[in-house]
Amino acid sequence: RRPDASMEKTVSDTPQIPTAAHLAEAHPELIARGSADSAVAHGSRPQVDAVSTITEYLDRSDWRVNANANQGYSLGG
Questions:
Q1: What is the per-residue pLDDT across 35-47, written as a single tens digit (0 to 9) for each?
Q2: Any idea where the domains of the chain sit in the sequence?
């Protein structure tokens, strides 16, 4: 049985092959990701202290938690 015209693939339906422009655009992101992975691998400390941040959130001592009056807890803003 032969497929009808609605089942035929067109060139626009096929995925694009990455070009140099795609790679140039992605390059800075790849470098940033690599440096973050490198920092973790070399044991550098995070910029935010997780324990302190969670304690401030639970104690509501961080102003961002109470800044949104429409919700019980808000840290996203």
A1: 656 666 666 666 7
A2: 38-66
